[in-house]
Amino acid sequence: MLFNKYVKVLTALYVVITLPYFAYNDIQNYWSLEKSGGQLQFDLITHKEALRKAVPKTARCIIMNDNSTFVFSYLIDKQGFIFDSSHLPPEWMNDMIDNKGARYFYCSNRKIDTSQAVKPFLDSLILQRGIINVYKLKSSQRRSNTD
Question: Is residue 89 packed enough to be buried (19+ CB in 10 Å), middle (13-18) or exposed (0-12)?
Answer without folding.
Answer: exposed
